[in-house]
Structure to design on (234 residues):
């Protein structure tokens, strides 16, 4: 029976008419891409401020490269591990885990303190940025997969494109937040300038935190549920 029901279920999902929950899924999944882009692209301002604060100008090339790319290094294992866990344990549960990790690491990056300034602070920052990258890497495949599994066959490409388009808004938001924060501390003392990059990084936790409740209210995708049932009954 399961073998006969499975194709019918998938066919019904493919031809289902577009409904309000499709647009809700776009907004919720899109906020993940928005936050991912904000966290990744805001680092350019952070590097400049850290260089001004701790190195008296431009930071050494190795320091600048480490801060800039460490999160990207974390996205690769994040995609592999969380993508695999999403197939094994369900999209919804792993989606929540990646979001919690993203919030924690965004806040921890802003609280990167050390008894020794300069190199020690950068080391702590890179540690948390790596794990932030892991959470971002996990969010990428899960957001795209969830949207594709919610969408019908006719609008699947357009809906996934709408989710990915939120990256542009996240990039824009990173620039706006950076300019506003820098302007607010334009006449601050050198010690107070240290707050600029910390505030910029911690603000990245806000959109992720605001969407956590709605992500947890999203039901598991029908395709995932029926595939699990089909595999179990087979």
């Amino acid at each position: 029976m399961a073998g006969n029901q499975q194709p019918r279920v998938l066919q019904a999902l493919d031809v289902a008419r577009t409904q309000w929950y499709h647009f809700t899924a776009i907004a919720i999944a899109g906020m993940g891409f928005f936050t991912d882009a904000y966290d990744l692209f805001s680092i350019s301002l952070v590097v400049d401020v850290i260089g001004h604060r701790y190195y008296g100008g431009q930071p050494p090339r190795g320091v600048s490269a480490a801060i800039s790319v460490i999160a990207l290094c974390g996205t690769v294992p994040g995609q592999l591990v969380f993508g695999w866990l999403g197939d094994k344990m369900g999209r919804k549960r792993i989606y929540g885990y990646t979001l919690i990790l993203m919030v924690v690491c965004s806040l921890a990056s802003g609280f990167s303190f050390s008894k020794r300034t300069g190199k020690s602070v950068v080391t702590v920052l890179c540690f948390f940025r790596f794990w932030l990258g892991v959470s971002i890497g996990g969010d990428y495949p899960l957001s795209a997969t969830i949207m594709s599994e919610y969408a019908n066959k006719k609008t699947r490409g357009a809906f996934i494109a709408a989710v990915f388009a939120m990256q542009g808004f996240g990039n824009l938001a990173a620039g706006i937040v950076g300019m506003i924060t820098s302007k607010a501390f334009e006449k601050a003392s050198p010690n107070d300038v240290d707050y600029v990059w910390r505030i910029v990084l911690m603000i990245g936790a806000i959109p992720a935190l605001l969407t956590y409740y709605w992500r947890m209210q999203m039901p598991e995708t029908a395709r995932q549920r029926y595939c699990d049932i089909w595999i179990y009954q087979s």
